[in-house]
Amino acid sequence: MVIVIAIGIAVFMTYQQPKALPGNAYANPPMDAMGMMHFHPSLTLVVDGKPAPVPAQIGIDPTMWQNHSLDLYGMKGMAPLHTHDTSGTIHVESYANRYYTFGQLLDIWGLDLSAYKQVTVTVNGQPVSDYQNYVLNDGDKIILSFNTK
Ligand SMILES: [Cu+2]
After folding, report:
1. What's 41's domain CATH number?
2. Distance 59 CA to ligand 1 centre (A)
């Protein structure tokens, strides 16, 4: 009887393990063929009132990979938040289902917005004041504007 219960608990725990805790993981996130959580918000940059390209290779090129605290969740050679080109497509590509925030992207990038003025962020047209903690979602259209002077 004890053994049956022990096995039952073990099976239950194994079954539960891949499920994320409520509040810090996505419900049914897009997955890719490699079994990674993989989806794409987009970022538009507006600097001094003019559209500016989002750098390529954020989270890949060492000069645009300033924070390594999340590296264990990404593929080798890539942070779990990265860009490949200047289109503004953000790749969220992670072995673990866990929330990723806009602030984490900024940390990886090394973009310190405290250096700029009139920083505003909208997501899908809605202003977001606590943008550092904004949780990224597939298809989000994020606009980051700031002034350099
Ligand atoms: Cu991708």
Report:
1. 3.10.20.30
2. 12
